[in-house]
Predict the 3D structure of the following.
Amino acid sequence: MIPATERKSADVLVLGGGMAGCMGAVAAAMAGRSVVLADKAWVGGSGESCFAAGDILYFDPEEDDLHEWLERWNRNGSGMFDPEWMEWYAGSSTEIVNMMNEWGMDFEKDANGRFKRKPGRGHNHAVVFPGFKMMRKLRARLEKLGVTIVDRVQVTDLLTNNGQVVGATGFNVRTGQFHIFHARNTILCTGSCSFKGQYPGQDMESGEGNTMALQAGAEFTNMEFSNCYNSTARDFDICGMSRFQRLGGRFTNALGEPFMDRYDPINKDGALLHVLVRAMTTEVREGRGPIYFNLKNMSEEDRELSYRIVPTFFAACKSCGIDPFKDSVEWIPGFMGSTSSGSGLTLKSFACDTTVPRLFAAGDMANQGLLIGSIAGAGAVHLGWATISGFRAGEGAARACEGAELLPVDEAQVESIREKTFAKLGHEGHLSIADAIYRIQSCVIPAKYNIIRCGEDLREALAALDQIEKDIEKEIIVRDTHELMLYHELRGMLTTARLTFTSALERRESRGSHYRTDYPDMDKEWNVWLKSRLKDGKIEITREPVPAEKFERYGLPVYPL
């Protein structure tokens, strides 16, 4: 028997319990607001943040030059970033990381008590820490601040009143209990969509937030860059690659040749991910695969530090009888979807508010391209963006409560959503959840859809997604509330794939992680941010010129040169 409906009300509702969600809830609570934080797993012990390499891009005003930072990330992102937002991030990182240090978070320090900073993909400036420990400490801080934490509830829909978000609904993934959350302001931090790819901590990153936001009328930016691949061991999950690539990691092909200097003569094995995976793909296509990776050149100091920061990697190696400091391990591109990519919900201001009133966004839900432009998987930015955007969204949502009434919930809308939420529970058909996931993965993971694209393949993928959705609605098997959760994850995956491919089809050039064989060059005509939103049931793409005047004001070149 399903328990009675649970209703909760707060000033600020936070959806998603990773780093972004926890920091948002902390900030709102510190501002004196009542806060509810809901997550479909267990806040502090699951999700991507717990498995992350444990590094945050950190600006040290005593050592770093802001203009060098701006030049670096403008170059890395091929002119698709926003220099004002990178300046905002740099200053915010100094303030917020130092504040977290005062809370007692476990940042690595040198003998003088200063932060140890280590290099990663695209940078030299990350503070480091064990991510799994920090997430547990953040949960303890939330509890101390009086935040109401709701674990094991998958949120499926946003509630609206005259176009403004007034809360959300969801259900307990174990008991099926329906939950109604009512709030003055809502922060969406439900994470990215990895399509259940081969990378640790991301098996629950399924894009439900994208579906909710799109249906509520929100706008997305540059979704064509939602095609991140990390690199990973063929036979087991790993993490820590941003660090490993810059601290002695070496890629070789089947001939034993280091090959990355052919594709990136400057960064070589420390190349940005879109360069790395394209190089790996090319080597294999030209008959020099498979690819191997080893850490033979890592220093003793960095080995010892890595053991502390990412112990799960070494546990996985040990279980397979591998010594990564001696053995070369077969390596493949590991699909991560929209994780750590230069895309997401459009943000209107540094308060991290979206184009929908009373809806804020942070982490992978928010447009990280404001910092990294057209690339994906930039080291230390991912967790840094989650931390900084999360905290600022919490502050922004708390400030926006001033003078804002608690708008009423439309009970007819709630009942319609409730019916839709449970409509497939008990549905009998011929398509299992596992088979449906595999079919979606077959439309997004292969190289021709996301590493080396062309218009024909993108149209093929979109047509296939349409057919998969029809088959899911007609034939899916949903036997219990766990499979009901997975069914709603399927909807998130379909939404994310459509947003990605529709935007990729529109951008007729190659830039950053978006590479098209039919348009192989970067083109000044496409110095635009592509905006996606739902119109008459279809995804509509519009263009917004990259603000060249900002680049001029900061003394930065506009790419392509």
